[in-house]
Structure formats: structure tokens, C-alpha cells
């Protein structure tokens, strides 16, 4: 593949599905400019789209060219997953139907399940040995579980689904509540499904001088304000914007892959949905959001956090929803 960068590192091959969609458009220019894998890391960008959107993808490729980005080694456009995923190292699976007003994300299951089954199978056949897969298309957790099931030769640890947007939403709400900068917030965890049942846990949070325990003593704020604001933020954005979150979703995707590939800083943690090894009472095999850190290779679940009764009930409810989604897929 021709390369047009002057960097010493070999380019990383990144395939973005749904590249001409709204999240794709918001993500591609930042990925191409080094915001995801580092400013010293060139990338080969592969844009995968449905045939009807190939024209739009061509236009985006022209715009990428016009940025004259030094990190951008090449841009290619595909409508064939096998060609787009051949040798892929970072697969961003964004391409899927978004929900509209009045729908829950799980309503997309039947529309999107087949896409993730097919893409999982093809990834298993042609992706690079070090591939890492980030599912954004909804319902993201279960789509990731479907893709993983269809790629038995890819280690389970290489599959993930995005809950970083929820994590970032929780940080923003906490910073506002505690009147501290977002950089003063640590110890947030999103547990469970990327859905209205997700549980944003603040019991291990530091918010400047305040602890999450102290913030949680105002149960009315926690139960009636904080948790629903975070968990239903996607619906609030659809109601306000008439379309689902795009720039913030692209930003969350970039944060997620950056932490996974380059490592999480310090002794803090972030949230990502990964295949459960059977910890924290989450059955093995479910793609569930956990507190995680990365050494730049694999996500590692932060173990040993105390889970109180308040948290346990909410984690269990979200896990039950994940189990129901998998059962619905099995029935399809
Ligand atoms: N996990 C998360 O935090 C979030 C997930 N989402 C989800 O991300 C997905 C994409 O959202 P948007 O970009 O807003 O939607 P969009 O409708 O603007 O774009 C989706 C794009 O994917 C393409 N596409 C559909 N099926 C494809 C396939 N099989 N292969 C390749 N491309 C395909 C379409 O042609 C379209 O260009 C939706 O499922 C949405 O619900 C959205 C926000 C946050
Ligand atoms: O709510 C939606 O459908 C889009 C999404 O996943 C989010 O914004 O979290």
C-alpha cells in the first residue's frame, strides 16, 4: 500500500464502518489527525460504507485529502467488508441504524444483528493478529457479543463496546454538581448495558475535595437527577437535536481507543464494555461495562471495588437486560 508520511512508525490500519454517517464524519478527521493513536502515529484509513453511501464516502475522502494531514498515510473506500477488514488492526464498527424518537436501543437489535454477525465472521477470517474491535453501533453491547460469537479465532479480549460516552457524560454532570473542573473527577464507573438501565456508580468517586459517598448522601439528587440524566442523555439529545448524539459519540470512541491502545494514565480507571470473565456477579460471556484500565495492550478489569446494596441492585438490573437481549438474538 503506498504511504505518504514521513514518520518512522509503521502506519496502523484503521477501518471505520458507517464512515459517511454522522458519527463517522465527526470521527474521521480527528483519527486522521492523530487524536486517537498519537500524533507520531501514521494511519491507513479504510472507509466501509453501504453501496448507496459510496458517493458520500468519496466526498469525505476528498476532504481528508484537502486537510493535508501528515499522519494520514492513505485513504481507501470499500463496500466489501472482506476487503475493508483485510489486515485491519483497529476496527471501529459504527455503521448501523440509529434509533429515532420513541425507540429504545434494543429496538435496533433485529435490524443490526445480522450486520454484526457478518462483520464478526469476516473479521475472524481476515483481520490482523493484533486486531482490536470497538463496537459503537447500537445496541452496542449485544452487537459486540454477536460479533465475538462469530469470530471464534479472535481472542475475546479484543472485542469491546462503547460506554465511554456514558462515562464522559457522568464526569461532566459530577463536575457541574461539585463545582470542580472535569479534570478533578476520578473513580466513575459505568456498569452494565449502554442503555437506559446502565448504572453510573459514584460510590468510588473523587470530585476535588468531595467524595462520591458524600455526594450520594443526597439520595434525591442521585436517584432522581444524576442517574437518569446520565442514563437517558441519548434520548434527551434525540429529543433536542432530532438526531442521535454524533460528535460526543465520536469523541467517546476516540477516547476509548486511545486509552486502550496507548494505556490509561496513572492509577485511575475508565469504563468500557468488554466480555465478562465472570467477575462482579456478571455471567461469563456477556459484553458488560466495567471499570477498566489498559497497559496499552489489553483492557484489565479493576477488581476488588466494594459494591453496596444500592449499586448491586442496579448492576443486576442492567445485567438482566443484557441477558434478555442475548436471549432475543438467540430467538431471531
Ligand atoms: N455506543 C454509543 O455510545 C453510541 C452509539 N450510537 C450508534 O451508532 C450508530 C451510528 O450512528 P450515526 O452515525 O448517527 O448513524 P447514521 O445513520 O448517520 O450513519 C450510519 C452509517 O452507517 C452506514 N451503514 C449502515 N449499515 C452499514 C453496514 N452494514 N456496513 C457499513 N456501513 C453501514 C450507513 O450507510 C450510514 O452512512 C447507530 O447505531 C447509533 O445508534 C450513537 C451514539 C452513541
Ligand atoms: O441514544 C442513542 O440512540 C444514541 C446513543 O447511543 C447515545 O447517545 O448514547
UniProtKB/TrEMBL annotation:
Superkingdom field: Bacteria
Q: Which UniProt keywords apply?
A: NAD, Oxidoreductase, Tricarboxylic acid cycle
Record-annotated Lactate/malate dehydrogenase C-terminal domain positions: 163-329
Main enzyme class = oxidoreductase
Q: Where is the active site?
A: 194 (proton acceptor)
Which EC number(s) does UniProt give?
A: 1.1.1.37
Name the SUPFAM superfamilies on file: LDH C-terminal domain-like, NAD(P)-binding Rossmann-fold domains
Alphabetical list of InterPro entries matching this protein:
L-lactate/malate_DH (IPR001557), Lactate/malate_DH_C (IPR022383), Lactate/malate_DH_N (IPR001236), Lactate_DH/Glyco_Ohase_4_C (IPR015955), Malate_DH_AS (IPR001252), Malate_DH_type2 (IPR010945), NAD(P)-bd_dom_sf (IPR036291)
Lineage in the entry?
Bacteria, Bacillati, Actinomycetota, Actinomycetes, Mycobacteriales
**What is the protein name for this chain?**
Malate dehydrogenase
Q: Which family does this protein fall into? A: Belongs to the LDH/MDH superfamily. MDH type 2 family.
Amino acid at each position: 500500500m503506498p504511504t505518504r508520511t514521513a514518520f518512522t512508525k509503521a502506519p496502523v490500519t484503521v477501518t471505520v464502518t458507517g464512515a459517511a454517517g454522522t458519527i463517522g464524519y465527526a470521527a474521521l478527521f480527528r483519527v486522521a489527525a492523530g487524536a486517537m493513536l498519537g500524533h507520531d502515529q501514521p494511519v491507513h484509513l479504510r472507509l466501509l460504507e453501504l453501496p448507496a453511501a459510496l458517493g458520500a464516502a468519496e466526498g469525505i475522502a476528498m476532504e481528508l485529502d484537502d486537510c493535508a494531514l501528515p499522519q494520514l498515510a492513505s485513504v481507501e473506500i470499500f463496500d466489501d467488508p472482506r476487503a475493508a477488514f483485510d489486515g485491519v488492526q483497529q476496527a471501529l464498527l459504527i455503521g448501523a441504524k440509529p434509533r429515532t424518537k420513541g425507540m429504545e436501543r434494543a429496538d435496533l437489535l433485529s435490524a443490526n444483528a445480522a450486520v454484526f454477525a457478518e462483520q464478526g465472521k469476516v473479521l475472524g477470517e481476515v483481520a490482523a493478529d493484533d486486531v482490536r474491535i470497538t463496537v459503537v453501533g447500537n445496541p452496542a453491547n449485544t452487537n459486540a457479543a454477536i460479533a465475538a460469537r462469530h469470530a471464534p479465532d479472535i481472542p475475546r479480549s479484543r472485542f469491546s463496546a462503547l460506554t465511554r460516552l456514558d462515562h464522559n457524560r457522568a464526569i461532566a454532570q459530577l463536575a457541574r454538581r461539585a463545582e470542580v473542573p472535569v479534570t478533578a473527577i476520578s473513580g466513575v464507573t459505568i456498569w452494565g448495558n449502554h442503555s437506559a438501565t446502565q448504572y453510573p456508580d459514584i460510590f468510588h468517586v473523587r470530585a476535588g475535595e468531595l467524595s462520591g459517598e458524600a455526594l450520594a448522601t443526597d439520595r434525591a439528587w442521585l436517584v432522581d437527577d444524576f442517574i437518569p440524566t446520565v442514563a437517558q442523555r441519548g434520548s434527551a439529545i434525540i429529543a433536542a437535536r432530532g438526531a442521535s448524539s454524533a460528535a460526543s459519540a465520536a469523541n467517546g470512541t476516540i477516547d476509548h481507543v486511545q486509552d486502550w491502545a496507548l494505556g490509561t494514565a496513572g492509577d485511575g480507571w475508565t469504563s468500557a464494555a468488554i466480555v465478562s470473565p465472570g467477575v462482579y456477579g456478571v455471567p461469563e460471556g456477556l459484553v458488560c461495562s466495567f471499570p477498566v484500565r489498559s497497559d496499552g495492550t489489553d483492557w484489565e478489569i479493576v477488581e476488588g471495588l466494594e459494591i453496596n446494596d444500592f449499586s448491586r441492585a442496579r448492576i443486576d438490573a442492567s445485567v438482566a437486560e443484557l441477558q434478555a437481549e442475548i436471549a432475543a438474538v438467540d430467538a431471531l
